[in-house]
Design goal:
It holds the Pfam family HTH_5. About 55% of the residues lie in helices and about 15% in strands. The chain is an alpha+beta fold. It has a single domain, classed as Arc Repressor Mutant, subunit A, CATH 1.10.10.
Length: about 100
């Protein structure tokens, strides 16, 4: 499907997802969740080397805008890409920033 074929509501949703992703830490989070990985807030905050509360804030934005989903397993909540094709955005960003 081409972008021009999307209805206005879908375009709005896509724009909101892109706005949510458009932050260095959130792009990094997507990078850690590539290839179907599931990580907890603690694991992500340790990888990013930022405060856990800041990590939770970023995860909340990504989840609210439909970029991430989460599942509870025991005491832990695991975050993962809602759509595995979102990994393509990370690949695109990586390829477009070389050079």
């Amino acid at each position: 499907m081409k972008i021009r074929e999307l209805e206005p509501a879908k375009l709005e949703q896509a724009a909101n997802m892109l706005k949510a992703i458009a932050h260095p830490m959130r792009i990094a989070i997507l990078g850690y969740l590539e290839d179907g990985k599931k990580l907890t807030v603690t694991e992500i905050h340790e990888l990013l080397k930022i405060e856990q509360s800041t990590t939770s804030h970023h995860l909340g934005i990504l989840k609210d805008k439909g970029v991430l989903s989460s599942s509870r397993e025991g005491k832990n909540t695991y975050y993962f890409l809602k759509h595995c094709s979102l990994s393509n955005i990370v690949d695109c960003i990586s390829n477009c920033t070389h050079g």
